[in-house]
Amino acid sequence: MSPEALLQTAAAIAESPTGVSSTFTSEEFDDYVMKTYARYPITLERGAGCRVWDTEGREYLDFVAGIATCTLGHAHPVMVEAVTQQIQTLHHVSNLYYTSAQGELAKCLVNHSCADRAFFCNSGAEANEGAIKLARKYAHTVLGIADPVIITAHASFHGRTLATITATGQPKYQKDFSPLVPGFHYVPYNDLAALEQAIADLDKDERRVAAILLEALQGEGGVRPGDQAYFQRIREICDQKGILLICDEVQVGMGRTGKLWGYENLGIEPDIFTSAKGLGGGIPIGAMLCKEFCNVFHPGDHASTFGGNPFACAVALAVCQFIERENLLANVQERGEQLRAGLQSIAARYPDKVAEVRGWGLINGLEIKPDLELTSAQVVQSAIDQGVLLVPAGPKVVRFVPPLIVNAAEVDQAIQAVDQAFASL
């Protein structure tokens, strides 16, 4: 299929009916769907590029991108082609058999990272669950640790399974789900002294640390980049003590930070890292990757019915190849600098409202002054009124995570909308 034909196909998909009645109201939705999300009063119907439209025909600039997931935006021709070809060929078989798509995706990820092996699943939570299990098996079978401890950070976020909400250092996600999974210990993020003290204290209590699990940049915790010196010292400690270093790349991987992987911003290599969200560009897929020395899983140790299915892998491979072929990382770096400069100008205009702007590439946060009653949710709602979709990262941080294909004009539009949003609050 020619590029022209692909563009026509994407445009037709964006303009065509969704296949689900647009008359299904939000009230009816709430009658049948569990209320596990506090949803904004918008019913989205279709998308193209960095824009989406609701059932009333209103257009929005999408700087949420499925929460850092729609790498290539909506209805991208490359994804349309990959989806179409693979669904017509082979979309799912059991992992009892080999499939080319899974092998090719694993090869691509390994060749473009520090990892040697890949395991595929369906989400970031599952990828982190797999990393936790791998670290525990390594602790038992290689290190001889009977009760291994994994250190994670306060304000982290690693998923919604029981193990991953336990790993998540935020009590609000753990409330009412006890008993939690044992074997986790929390430390402040970017605080080296606290980490070293925690390891020493655990050693005194004869509770050996098997792994340290950290995000290269804390996303849900307020868009807080990791400190390079902090991570480099952790790498040294892990090497000295035989501790595994695990990086959660679910939100920051796949080019989101301007480098393919978040850990590349820190000058270190993890022993294990996880990916999801942007990996499939919006098609559900997760991956847990590791170096060969800690590749201790054997048949029967871990599995996933849908993990690595040909459909998801073919689309993820197309996304990966597009990022490399089109040098998309350069756009992420340039648009990220433009976005941060624009947000800094907003901070300068509203010094009584904005505390800080921070981030890497196209994951950026604008923090509201802590002593104000103004919340990130209020800013997000005001931006929606201006036609731009944003997402909170906690009660005081507004997060900007557009598709990686975003252009300069769209960044300018978002900045103008946020300026207007603050002016109205």
In short:
By secondary structure, this protein is of the alpha/beta class.
Give your account of this protein's structure:
- The protein has 425 residues and is α/β, with parallel strands linked by helices.
- It folds into 2 domains: 81-325, Type I PLP-dependent aspartate aminotransferase-like (Major domain) (Aspartate Aminotransferase, domain 2, 3-Layer(aba) Sandwich), CATH 3.40.640.10; 342-400, Aspartate Aminotransferase, domain 1.
- 40% of the residues lie in helices and 17% in strands.
- The chain contains 14 helices and 17 strands.
- Strands 4-12-11-10-7-5-6 form a 7-stranded mixed sheet, sandwiched between helices.
- A hairpin with a 5-residue loop joins β8 and β9.
- α1 crosses α4 (77-87), α5 runs parallel beside α11 and α12 packs parallel to α14 (408-423).
- The longest helix is centred in the last third of the chain and has 22 residues, at 328-349.
- The radius of gyration is 22 Å and the shape is globular.
- It starts with a helix and ends with a helix.
- Residues 1-7 have low confidence and may be disordered.
- Spatial order of strands in the largest sheet: 4-12-11-10-7-5-6
Main β-sheet: number of strands, strand sense, barrel status?
7 strands, mixed
Q: For the record, what is the CATH homologous superfamily label of the largest domain?
A: Type I PLP-dependent aspartate aminotransferase-like (Major domain)
Portion in strands: 15-25%
CATH class of the largest domain: Alpha Beta
Report helical residue fraction: 25-40%
Spans where pLDDT lies below 50 across 5 or more residues = 1-7
Which word captures the global form? globular
- Overall mean pLDDT stands at 95
Please tell me the total number of domains.
2
CATH architecture of the largest domain: 3-Layer(aba) Sandwich
The N- to C-terminal Cα distance equals 49 Å
* Helix-strand makeup class: alpha/beta
Q: Could you name the CATH topology of the largest domain?
A: Aspartate Aminotransferase, domain 2
- Tell me the radius of gyration: 22 Å
For the secondary structure, the number of strands is 17
Count of separate DSSP helical elements: 14
